[in-house]
Amino acid sequence: MAQEGPYHHGNLRAALVIAGIDLLEEAGLPGLSLRAVAARVGVSHSAPRNHFRGLAGLLSAIAAEGFRRHAAALGDAMAEAGEDRAARAQAAAEAYVAFALASPALFTLMFSKDRLDADDAALWAARSESYDRLREAARGYASGPAASLPENLAAETYLWSLVHGFARLRLDGVLGKSERMLGRQLEVGEILPKGLFDEP
Amino acid sequence: MAQEGPYHHGNLRAALVIAGIDLLEEAGLPGLSLRAVAARVGVSHSAPRNHFRGLAGLLSAIAAEGFRRHAAALGDAMAEAGEDRAARAQAAAEAYVAFALASPALFTLMFSKDRLDADDAALWAARSESYDRLREAARGYASGPAASLPENLAAETYLWSLVHGFARLRLDGVLGKSERMLGRQLEVGEILPKGLFDEP
DNA sequence: CGGCGATGTCACCGCTGTCAACATCAAGAT
DNA sequence: ATCTTGATGTTGACAGCGGTGACATCGCCG
Question: What string of DSSP letters covers B131-189?
Fold first, then answer.
């Protein structure tokens, strides 16, 4: 029953992650199982166990790869936007939404807390890499008198919430494709005075 | 083997939904299974089949109940805020985030498209009820010269994205509890000129 | 009183994640 | 050259899951 390939795969771990991402985009999160990934690579159903701590481990590795691609997408967009900080923020925001719409299942997995291994160091590193890009995009964009730390922090949170929420509502089919964000015509302070997101 | 209770439950459907919501808050989405819900009510694992179209049907019924509570929470908050439209929008936004933080799994289920039955009429009705509240909160808050329809539409989308994104990032453990939204100090037009969310 | 639809049970299927035991291979030690 | 050791992959088994169909039981309505 010994098939063509050698007994050992050579680089099974990487192959499983790639196959997992492919499966994710083809069949969505419910279609991504340890057995399905193993079968796609052509390996026994229990082989992934040697490389990942169960399903959560595989999902964490996939999510980590997703965050690396995410960070790269944001970084590329900002680099292409040049030096102007407004243009860079704009480009990063566009790239954020574009990434989510292009890889819905991967994007969803990246932020689905309970399916990922909380102790995965590589995932944490990749996450930070991605967050740093976003933080960079929002840096220095508080329009208050001084650009002190709290204002910068708020700018990050603000930009991130807006972009992330829009992406999620789009992915969840809540916002139609015809929705527009005419941000320039809105004074957000009118809608949401400060203190809204203070601790309960 | 006939236990105490009568053969027929009496109001099994409602009992299953309530048990489902309880399980959801106790064990999260992964802990919510048809068998677990049936066991909690004290009925065989196949009994729910007579009341729901599979797991998706039960989840849809639970999500519908969630949307009804959500709409009620927003409505109550706005009613308590009085007549001032800014205060009403503020109250609705606060209630939106508070609901998400108080019932994380339920809130997540409500917006997890692929687990719900797309044809569930009751779910659609409850959803609309909730969306109407949010639309009401954002009504008339475009600060452009004229409050024509596009501006109103944008205000809804804007407010919703911001609040929804903030809630999701909080639930996913991305934003710490110390994060603040100093919205008043930000001119959002500076960060996100219009056209950001145009079609790709 | 008798049937009949609604409701709940039981037995089974295929799929999943996890585990334990075993087989195979590569590389270093003797 | 041979042995040993650890990593890697296979096989078989288990329990839990959602789904299905056959059957049992109840309450209602003619």
Answer: HHHHHHHHTT---SSS--HHHHHHHHHHHHHHHHHHHHHHHTT-S-TT----GGG--HH
Does the structure show a pLDDT above 50 at B159?
Answer: yes
Whether the Cβ atoms of residue A61 and residue A119 lie closer than 8 Å to each other: no
- As a whole number of Å, the CA-based R_g of chain A is 20
Question: Which 8-state DSSP code applies to residue A139?
Answer: T
Determine, for residues B114 and A163 on separate chains, whether the beta-carbon distance falls below 8 Å.
no
Instruction: Give A48-51 contacts, CB < 8 A, sequence gap 24+.
Output: A48/A12, A48/A16, A50/A12, A51/A12, A51/A13, A51/A16
A34 touches strand C (CB under 7 A): yes
Residues B93, A195: contact at Cβ < 8 Å?
Answer: no
The whole model's pTM is what? 0.85
- Looking at residue A165, its amino acid is G
Residue B138 near residue B159, CB atoms below 8 Å: yes
B69 token code pair: 């509570």
How many angstroms is C1' of D9 away from CA of A12? 10
CB atoms within 10 A of CB B71: 20
Q: In which residue are the tokens 């992330």 written?
A: A164
Q: What is the pLDDT of residues A47-83, one digit of tens each?
A: 999 999 999 999 999 999 999 999 999 999 999 988 8
**How far is it, in rounded angstroms, from Cα A193 to Cα B89?**
10
The alpha-carbon gap from B181 to the nearest alpha carbon of chain A, in Å, equals: 5
| Residues 44-63 of chain A in contact with strand C via CB under 7 angstroms | 45-46, 49, 54-56
| Per-residue tokens: B2 | 């006939």
The whole-number Å distance from A43's CA to C10's C1' is 37
Q: A159: burial class by Cβ within 10 Å (0-12, 13-18, 19+)?
A: buried
Which tops the pLDDT comparison, B38 or B191? Answer: B38
Give the Cα separation of A157 and B182 in Å (integer).
9
Place of tokens 């790869």: A65
